[in-house]
Amino acid sequence: GALNQGGSLDIFVMRGGRIIGTYSAGDFGEMSGGRVGAVNLQAADNGFHMTGGPIDRFLYAQTGDDYFQLDGGTIGFDPVGGTAGAGNSINSGAGDDKVILDGALIEGDVVLYNPNNPGAEADYLVLRSGSILGQVRMGAGSDLVLVAPTFNPDFAAGVQGGIDGGDDRSTADGWVDAL
User: Residue 167: CA atoms inside 13 Å, Cβ hemisphere, count?
Assistant: First the structure.
């Protein structure tokens, strides 16, 4: 089964149980337990806070200024798209999006841009703790990446090499680079 919340302002709270299919068309989601096949928040200024439980395939939003706070749990990947055999785990679509990773495991790529208009956004990514096994792709806009010294040290080279395009800045433990 799946859960489609439809129009209007919707709030989703999951503390246990399982949605085998896709949770879609929500505006704000909070997940502290349970298991979801995939999350597609669709078009709006969406928010999603995750502290536990796995999302088997992906966390997507379409248009709007989205905010994802990922403090725990695991996000799998969509087998279509992505790089190096892994697909996209997070895709925020069009808009000025913010993603804060502070404890979650991201198994695929993190995509923070709209491929149909890749230079129009200013996205913001904070990497405090947790891990990203894929790449970070942020497009040609003016993006900001903040990397805490506590973030997975094996990914430090991936942050520098995996952020593509544009007028990006990255900071970690006192350094600033134009990427």
Answer: 6
pTM for the structure as a whole: 0.83
Q: Which two tokens stand for residue 122?
A: 């200013």
Query: What are φ and ψ of residue 160, in 5° steps?
Result: -70, -40
Token output for 107? 């198994």
Beta bridge partners of 105: 74, 131
Name the residue type at position 117. N
Tokens of 104: 């979650």
Question: Rounded to an integer, what distance in angstroms lies between the CA atom of residue 148 and that of residue 123?
Answer: 17
Tell me which residue has tokens 């279509």.
Answer: 80
Q: What is the pLDDT of residue 179?
A: 41
For residue 157, report the phi and psi dihedrals to the nearest 5 degrees.
-65, -35
